[in-house]
């Protein structure tokens, strides 16, 4: 088939200890999924889960043992980190039960939902969409995927983020308001989920800014570490 411009590459995530890659269809993100983070953002209580998306080409990969370079994005002076567990689906569907949703998880990665907090705040105030705050280029640093068959089902375990070796976020996956299967089930009522979809499952409390030169290290029990340095 003739293409008017060269065919575009499909985003694909590295798989730990493997030469295989995981093609990515869509990137969904869960908002305010840890109670203490909801509080620090000015909300309380167990609201229904809500979602936003990032483009698949916003993924910024760091191989195991490598430091990813995140260029400081334009039009912000308040770039925030949010450490998150990412799940990758190898099947999907509509209106999944929680049990069915749990079976869709192929693997896990450490991700950062980088946020231009000033632009997101403006958007919230004005009732505008969140894309400029959330979906900018390189806004989704991510480490390699770890197959669930190797690391087991993750429903608890430490999730931490340090900046320049100082711990800023420290929680446990068990503190999610909506657990992974519940989030997937809910999302499947809004969108038909498909193999290749990945989901950032929300961040715990302690979000804050980084500047050029800072190095972030995200860690989730069983998944190793993700190293990202902010560059000019
Ligand atoms: Mn987030």
Number of structural units classed as domains = 1
Largest sheet: 6 strands, mixed
Report mean pLDDT, rounded to a whole number.
96
Beta-strand residue fraction? 25-35%
Within CATH, the superfamily carries the name Fumarylacetoacetase-like, C-terminal domain
Unreliable parts: none
CATH architecture: Alpha-Beta Complex
| CATH fold descriptor | Fumarylacetoacetate hydrolase, domain 2
* Separate helix tally: 6
> How would you write the strand order of the largest sheet?
4-3-15-8-9-12
Structural class: alpha+beta
Counting DSSP E segments of at least 2 residues, the number of strands comes to 18
Return the CATH class. Alpha Beta
Topology readout:
Layout: E1 12-14, E2 21-23, E3 27-31, H1 35-40, E4 50-54, E5 59-61, E6 67-71, E7 79-81, E8 83-89, H2 98-102, E9 105-112, E10 115-116, H3 117-126, H4 131-134, E11 140-142, E12 146-147, H5 148-151, E13 158-163, E14 166-172, H6 180-188, E15 198-200, E16 208-209, E17 215-220, E18 224-231
Bound molecules: manganese (II) ion (MN).
Structural notes for this entry:
Strand 1 and strand 2 (21-23) form a beta hairpin. This protein has helices at 35-40, 98-102, 117-126, 131-134, 148-151, 180-188, and strands at residues 12-14, 21-23, 27-31, 50-54, 59-61, 67-71, 79-81, 83-89, 105-112, 115-116, 140-142, 146-147, 158-163, 166-172, 198-200, 208-209, 215-220, 224-231. It is built from 6 helices and 18 strands. It has 232 residues and is an alpha+beta fold. The site of manganese (II) ion has 7 residues, from loops.
């Amino acid at each position: 088939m003739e293409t008017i411009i060269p065919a575009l590459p499909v985003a694909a995530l590295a798989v730990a200890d493997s030469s295989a890659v995981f093609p990515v269809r869509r990137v969904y993100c869960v908002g305010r999924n840890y109670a203490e983070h909801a509080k620090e953002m000015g909300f309380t209580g167990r609201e229904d889960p809500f979602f936003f998306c990032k483009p698949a080409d916003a993924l910024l990969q760091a191989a195991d043992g490598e430091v990813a370079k995140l260029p400081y994005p334009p039009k912000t002076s308040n770039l925030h980190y949010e450490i998150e567990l990412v799940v990758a689906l190898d099947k999907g569907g509509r209106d999944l039960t929680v049990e069915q949703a749990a079976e869709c998880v192929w693997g896990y990665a450490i991700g950062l939902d980088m946020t231009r907090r000033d632009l997101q705040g403006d958007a919230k105030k004005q009732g505008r969409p969140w894309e400029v705050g959330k979906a900018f280029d390189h806004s989704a640093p991510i480490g390699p995927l770890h197959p669930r068959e190797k690391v087991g089902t993750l429903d608890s375990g430490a999730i931490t983020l340090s900046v320049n070796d100082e711990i800023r976020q420290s929680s446990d996956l068990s503190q999610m308001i909506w657990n992974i299967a519940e989030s997937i089930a809910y999302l499947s009522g809004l969108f038909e989920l498909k193999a290749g979809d990945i989901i950032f499952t929300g961040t715990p409390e302690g979000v804050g800014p980084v500047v050029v030169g800072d190095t972030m290290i995200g860690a989730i029990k069983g998944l190793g570490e993700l190293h990202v340095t902010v560059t000019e």
